[in-house]
């Protein structure tokens, strides 16, 4: 949660122009002096949040496909980094690479 809040704050601080209002998907506001509305399950209730969620997933999927060219043994082009059985098996076989979050269950045993 703290990493997410920090990333959201950094993302907002890098926007130009700065927004005057934030819609937050969740219950925790961003630590910034900007008017905000937190919406639990916001991706289901707000078209703006839903669209941003789709854009973020497409961006992440493309990023994972680019990681596949660097680390093909993990199958990132097909699993997109999710904990599929093949991905977990590759972590056991090859160990985690530098993009794996070692605090995530299943990466280290």
Kindly describe this structure.
The chain is mainly alpha-helical and 109 residues long. The chain contains five helices and two strands; from the N terminus they run H-E-E-H-H-H-H. It has helices spanning 2-13, 42-45, 47-70, 76-79, 85-94, and strands spanning 21-25, 35-39. It has a two-stranded parallel sheet with strand order 1-2. The protein is elongated, with a radius of gyration of 17 Å. The model has no long low-confidence stretch (mean pLDDT 93).
Question: What fraction of residues sit in β-strands?
Answer: 5-15%
In N-to-C order, the SSE pattern is HEEHHHH
Task: Assign a percent range to the helix content.
Answer: 40-55%
Separate helix tally: 5
β-strand number: 2
| Rg computed from alpha carbons, rounded to a whole number of angstroms | 17 Å
pLDDT under 50 segments (min length 5)?
none
Overall 3D shape: elongated
Structural class: mainly alpha
Q: Largest beta sheet, briefly?
A: 2 strands, parallel
The CA-CA distance between the termini, in Å, is 23 Å
Widest beta sheet: strand line-up = 1-2
Structure, briefly:
The chain is built from 5 helices and 2 strands. The protein is mainly alpha-helical and 109 residues long.
Search tags:
109 residues, mainly alpha, two-stranded parallel ribbon, 5 helices, 2 strands, elongated
